């Protein structure tokens, strides 16, 4: 991991921000190119893309932060100034995706762009940018995965990721999970985004009505995000409905009985805790029955299917070939 790329005059360049910036710029460039082929007014749409993109970026960052704060409202109520410390991590991309769509569609109307026609190629471009931005999550240790058991010979599975101890400055990764093999969920989410980007590019050449690509991508995002959630390890940060006997309080109680934590829930024997994780001991990590993101995925999928059917029923039988 590499949370800080370098420091200039005491100000660090955070890898998370770097990858988000790169992803944004790549997405904007691609959207501009696609607008010349799939836009309602190719030349004018290409000129309007940068303006639209800034609105979308604001929606992504603001919506993602608001969603994270709402999920962790107890903490931020006690630490209100931490709400603005976005560089420390803490974004829920569902919130960003939803607010970006709302603000983006409003902006397209102001710019005299066809909303759903624009959404098809802009959302496709956005998933390419998101795939790049997710590398930043891996670099800072955010959105980490569940633990995986060691192989019979004591080695880590080849596909797992292990964060070092000591952690580098600026890390968002919990120190108690260092040196423990985890699912690389950050890479899973990058792969998810790249797959949706590839699907969008394939669909743009074959769509039959405006909004078809956007609806399919939103439904696909909901399905794939719900699947990735099963491999996430930051249950308390995500929130949702916990499995019976595996809530944070239940886990704290078991760890205390095992002598791993004190009465305040603070881990006092890191080595013992890590060994329990490597061995796959049950009940030593909080587990969700269904996460908040999976609940949102269900709603998102339903809305996407509804919009697909509605747009299809209102559209001409066939679009001109592109």
Low-pLDDT residue spans: none
Kindly report how far apart the N and C termini lie: 43 Å
Total E-strand runs? 4
The rough form would be described as: elongated
Average of the residue pLDDT scores: 89
Helical residues, percent? 55-70%
Radius of gyration: 22 Å
Most strands sheet:
2 strands, antiparallel
β-strand percent reads: under 5%
* Strand order across the largest sheet: 1-2
How is this structure best summarized?
The chain is 58% helix and 5% strand. It is mainly α. The protein starts with a strand and ends in an 8-residue tail after the last helix.
Can you characterise this structure?
The protein is mainly alpha-helical. A hairpin with a 2-residue loop joins strand 1 and strand 2. The protein is elongated and about 65 Å long.
Question: What is the topology?
Answer:
Elements: E1 4-8, E2 11-14, H1 15-38, H2 42-71, H3 73-78, H4 93-110, H5 115-140, H6 185-204, H7 212-229, H8 235-238, E3 240-242, H9 248-257, H10 270-278, E4 288-291, H11 292-314
Antiparallel strand pairs: 1-2, 3-4
What are the salient characteristics of this protein?
single chain; 322 residues; mainly alpha; two-stranded antiparallel ribbon; two-stranded antiparallel sheet; 11 helices; 58% helix; 5% strand
């Amino acid at each position: 991991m590499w949370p800080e790329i370098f420091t200039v005059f005491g100000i660090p360049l955070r890898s998370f921000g770097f990858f988000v910036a790169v992803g944004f710029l790549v997405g904007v460039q691609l959207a501009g190119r696609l607008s010349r082929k799939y836009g309602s007014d190719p030349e004018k749409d290409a000129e309007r893309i940068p303006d639209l993109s800034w609105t979308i970026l604001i929606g992504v960052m603001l919506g993602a932060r608001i969603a994270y704060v709402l999920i962790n409202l107890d903490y931020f109520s006690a630490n209100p100034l931490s709400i603005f410390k976005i560089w420390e991590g803490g974004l829920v991309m569902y919130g960003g995706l939803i607010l970006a769509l709302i603000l983006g569609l409003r902006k397209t109307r102001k710019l005299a762009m066809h909303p759903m026609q624009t959404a098809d190629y802009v959302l496709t471009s956005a998933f390419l940018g998101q795939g790049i931005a997710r590398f930043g999550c891996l670099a800072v240790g955010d959105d980490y995965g569940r633990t995986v058991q060691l192989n019979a010979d004591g080695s880590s599975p080849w596909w797992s990721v292990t964060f070092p101890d000591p952690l580098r400055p600026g890390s968002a990764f919990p120190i108690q999970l260092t040196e423990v093999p985890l699912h690389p969920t950050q890479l899973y989410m990058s792969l998810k985004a790249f797959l949706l980007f590839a699907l969008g590019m394939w669909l743009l050449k074959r769509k039959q009505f405006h909004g078809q690509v956007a609806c399919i991508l939103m439904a696909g995002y909901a399905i794939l995000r719900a699947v990735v959630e099963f491999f996430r390890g930051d249950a308390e940060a995500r929130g949702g409905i916990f499995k019976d006997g595996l809530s944070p309080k239940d886990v704290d109680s078991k760890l205390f009985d095992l002598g791993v934590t004190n009465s305040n829930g603070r881990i006092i024997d890191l080595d013992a805790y890590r060994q329990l994780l490597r061995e796959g001991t049950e009940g030593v990590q909080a587990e969700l029955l269904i996460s908040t993101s999976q609940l949102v995925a269900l709603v998102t999928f339903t809305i996407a299917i509804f919009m697909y059917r509605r747009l299809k029923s209102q559209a001409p039988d066939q679009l001109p070939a592109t």
